[in-house]
């Protein structure tokens, strides 16, 4: 699914209206109807109580006015508050006139703000994608009043005061919504941690925007859902054998962190790898042979950490990092791997920290290497980010400079590609923020990079999605608090099965 900017969204709106030979108020009616359907399906008139609609001067306010009319028609008690402005949009004005006279309308003023309790249901239709600067004056006062009351706010399209595609001053007034109801495609602002408190839970409602125009618009940002991945993971070949699916090598573990090696190994085995060898220090040998008998163990001469790179010639992909520690000898193994590897690489955890300590090694990264940092690890490779938008700029520059893929882990894990594109993942849950979850991802990605039939991009997209989906499936059994990395590995099989293409009849 594409992520469009506010300007592009406007373009799609206009093209949709043109293609249908209709008018903008028809599209507004559709958007507000979808919004009202969403709300009335969740709140009866009695549960909602008196609904306050705060309407701004543009088309976001217009959406709010249509919603007010529809709610009134459906038996809800509604009161409208309008933000004073020098000019109102045409569709605001039309829908202001269409509002039945029995619906009370008042103008917002500093000395006249609505009375709110924590139970008041407020529809925030002050500003949407047309916001061009931080709120001030009466608009800022209204938003502060709303936030102070902790009212139940449902925002239309955007929480008012939040910019769609860019950061804003830290102390600017932004509505704290419980739900943000937007249309058709996600917005970049929804996916960034710094906006979580403003957006609440977000939902997309279809309003019949023109598909062809969306197809044609160029964007560097995508939200990865099932249709994005359709057809990328072929069914296993009937006459395939373990060689068809690659021989992966994992370099993982050190004394006290053999568990990380076990988790990555299990995950790799549950992600369709043909053969798997684990290189681990001698201390891990008995553990690995017992915990994961399907994997071959190739022990390092050192008891506690990795000191030697094995011969690489048999392997189709190599993953390094989970639990390896940061010994100098291990750093030398990493450097040697970067110099010698002709096969795809996946680097995680301490392999990234070691790269951060000796940045000249970054110049050795083979093209299409996949790195899987969390934000702190990423900063060790680059520089501290001012905010989430700056972090994305750093991500783009890093991927372009080193011609690599970076899986920046988070609630919406963002895959940065060497061509400057971003792919935000849609699966996963807060329960996955637990020790070992990243080790599992390394195993998954190493397995997929060993498949000769997948590109680096498709391997990364599928792996990140399947890892999150496995976490979601596991959480259905364990709950989020009870989710462990081991449980994620158990659901990788079903997650991949869902993504596997079926043959047409
Ligand atoms: N996405 C869709 O498919 C549909 C979206 N719809 C809704 O339309 C809005 C976008 O409407 P638009 O009129 O473009 O923008 P807004 O309503 O957000 O606001 C524009 C007006 O607000 C003024 N403005 C901007 N920033 C401020 C500010 N900080 N303080 C005060 N006033 C501000 C702006 O004035 P300018 O001086 O900047 O020109 C405008 O007057 C979208 O979000 C959806 O809710 C449609 O319903 C159809 C489908
Ligand atoms: K809004």
TrEMBL record:
EC number annotated for this UniProt entry: 4.2.1.136, 5.1.99.6
Residues at which AMP binds: 409-413, 438
Catalytic reactions of this protein: (6R)-NADPHX = (6S)-NADPHX; (6S)-NADHX + ADP = AMP + phosphate + NADH + H(+); (6R)-NADHX = (6S)-NADHX; (6S)-NADPHX + ADP = AMP + phosphate + NADPH + H(+)
Residues where (6S)-NADPHX binds: 59-63, 128-134, 157, 260, 323, 374, 439
Domain of life: Bacteria
Cofactor(s) in the UniProt record: Mg(2+); K(+)
Span of domain YjeF C-terminal: 225-499
Matching InterPro entries: Carbohydrate_kinase_pred_CS, CARKD, Nnr, Ribokinase-like, YjeF_N_dom, YjeF_N_dom_sf
Cofactor note: Binds 1 potassium ion per subunit.
SUPFAM superfamilies: Ribokinase-like, YjeF N-terminal domain-like
An example molecular function term from Gene Ontology annotations: NAD(P)HX epimerase activity
Record bears the keyword tRNA-binding: no
A GO biological-process term: metabolite repair
Pfam families: Carb_kinase (PF01256), YjeF_N (PF03853)
Residue positions binding K(+): 60, 124, 160
Assembly, per entry: Homotetramer.
Stated role: Catalyzes the epimerization of the S- and R-forms of NAD(P)HX, a damaged form of NAD(P)H that is a result of enzymatic or heat-dependent hydration. This is a prerequisite for the S-specific NAD(P)H-hydrate dehydratase to allow the repair of both epimers of NAD(P)HX. Catalyzes the dehydration of the S-form of NAD(P)HX at the expense of ADP, which is converted to AMP. Together with NAD(P)HX epimerase, which catalyzes the epimerization of the S- and R-forms, the enzyme allows the repair of both epimers of NAD(P)HX, a damaged form of NAD(P)H that is a result of enzymatic or heat-dependent hydration.
Family: In the N-terminal section; belongs to the NnrE/AIBP family.
Protein name from the UniProt record: Bifunctional NAD(P)H-hydrate repair enzyme
């Amino acid at each position: 699914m594409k992520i469009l900017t506010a300007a592009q969204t406007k373009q799609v709106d206009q093209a949709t209206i043109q293609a249908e030979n209709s008018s903008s108020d028809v599209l507004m009616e559709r958007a507000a109807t979808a919004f009202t359907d969403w709300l009335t399906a969740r709140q009866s008139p009695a549960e909602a109580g008196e609904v306050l609609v705060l309407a701004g001067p543009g088309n976001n306010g217009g959406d709010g006015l249509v919603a007010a009319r529809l709610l009134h028609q459906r038996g809800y008690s509604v009161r409208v508050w309008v933000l004073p402005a020098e000019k109102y949009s045409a569709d605001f004005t039309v829908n202001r006139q269409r509002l039945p006279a029995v619906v009370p309308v008042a103008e917002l003023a500093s000395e006249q703000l609505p009375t709110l309790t924590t139970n008041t249901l407020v529809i925030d239709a002050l500003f949407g994608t047309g916001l061009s600067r931080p709120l001030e004056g009466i608009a800022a006062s209204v938003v502060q009043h709303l936030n102070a009351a902790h009212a139940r706010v449902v925002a239309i399209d955007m929480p008012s005061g939040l910019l769609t595609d860019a950061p804003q001053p830290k102390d600017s007034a932004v509505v704290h919504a419980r739900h943000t109801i937007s249309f058709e495609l996600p917005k970049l602002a929804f996916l960034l941690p710094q906006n979580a408190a403003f957006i609440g839970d977000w939902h997309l409602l279809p309003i019949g925007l023109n598909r062809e125009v969306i197809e044609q618009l160029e964007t560097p940002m995508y939200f990865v859902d099932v249709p994005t991945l359709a057809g990328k993971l072929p069914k296993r070949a009937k006459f395939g054998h373990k060689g068809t699916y690659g021989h992966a090598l994992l370099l993982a573990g050190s004394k006290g962190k053999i568990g990380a090696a076990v988790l990555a190994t299990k995950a790799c085995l549950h992600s369709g790898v043909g053969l798997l060898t684990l290189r681990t220090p001698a201390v891990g040998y008995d553990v690995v042979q017992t915990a994961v008998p399907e994997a071959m163990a190739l022990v390092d001469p050192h008891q506690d950490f990795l000191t030697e790179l094995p011969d690489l010639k048999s392997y189709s992909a190599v993953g390094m990092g989970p639990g390896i520690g940061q010994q100098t000898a291990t750093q030398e193994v990493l450097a040697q791997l970067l110099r010698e590897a002709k096969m795809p690489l996946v680097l995680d955890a301490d392999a990234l920290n070691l790269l951060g300590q000796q940045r000249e090694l970054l110049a050795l990264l083979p093209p299409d290497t996949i790195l899987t940092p969390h934000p702190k690890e990423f900063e060790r490779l680059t520089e501290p980010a001012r905010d989430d938008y700056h972090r994305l700029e750093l991500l783009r520059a890093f991927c372009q400079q080193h011609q690599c893929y970076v899986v920046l882990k988070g609630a919406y894990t963002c895959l940065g590609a060497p061509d400057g594109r971003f792919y935000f993942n849609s699966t996963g849950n807060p329960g996955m923020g637990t020790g070992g979850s990243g080790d599992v991802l390394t195993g998954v990605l190493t397995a997929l990079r060993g498949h000769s039939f997948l590109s680096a991009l498709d391997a990364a997209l599928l792996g990140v999605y399947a890892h999150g989906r496995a976490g979601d499936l596991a959480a259905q059994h364990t709950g989020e608090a009870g989710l462990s990395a081991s449980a994620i590995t158990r659901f990788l099989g079903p997650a991949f099965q869902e993504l596997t293409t079926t043959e047409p009849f």
